[in-house]
Design goal:
alpha+beta
Length: 135
C-alpha cells in the first residue's frame, strides 16, 4: 500500500481553528481542559522529539492566547506511524488538549521517545504525500 490513505487516520491536532487544520477537524476551543493526562509530560516530550518530515518558513501562533503569542516555526513531524505539527505539543502542554487514545497507547510502547528516522525513511514517507509528477 503506497498511498496516503494508509496514513489518513494518523494525523493529530488537525483543529479547525488552525490555518493548517482541517475545516471538518475538531474544535480546539472545545478541547481545552483544566488538567492533563497523567502522562502528559511524556507525551509533550514525544511530540517535540519527532522527525521533521516537512519544514516551512511559516510561524505558528497560539490561537487561544489573547496576545497571539509565537509558538514556533511550522513543521510536520512524524515517528513513522503518526503525524503532527510543531504547535501540537504547545497545546497539549498549555491547554491539556487530549490526543487520540491510539497514539497515547502507542507512545509508551516506543519508550516515550519516537524513533529518529533515517533520511531514506523520511523520503519514502514524503513520497507518499508529495509524489513527483509522472509527466
Amino acid at each position: 500500500m503506497s498511498d496516503e490513505h494508509i496514513y489518513a487516520d494518523r494525523f493529530l491536532g488537525e483543529f479547525r481553528e488552525l490555518k493548517h487544520g482541517r475545516s471538518d477537524g475538531p474544535p480546539l476551543h472545545a478541547s481545552v481542559r483544566s488538567k492533563g493526562d497523567r502522562h502528559e509530560e511524556n507525551l509533550v516530550h514525544y511530540l517535540r522529539s519527532g522527525s521533521v518530515l516537512a519544514a516551512t518558513g511559516s510561524a505558528v501562533y497560539d490561537v487561544l492566547s489573547p496576545t497571539n503569542e509565537l509558538i514556533d516555526a511550522l513543521h510536520l513531524l512524524t515517528d513513522g506511524e503518526w503525524f503532527w505539527h510543531t504547535d501540537l505539543a504547545h497545546y497539549v502542554e498549555r491547554y491539556h488538549v487530549p490526543l487520540d487514545d491510539r497514539f497515547v497507547d502507542h507512545a509508551p510502547l516506543q519508550g516515550w521517545s519516537p524513533p529518529q528516522l533515517s533520511e531514506d525513511e523520511l523520503i519514502r514517507i514524503a513520497d507518499v504525500f508529495f509524489p513527483e509528477d509522472e509527466d
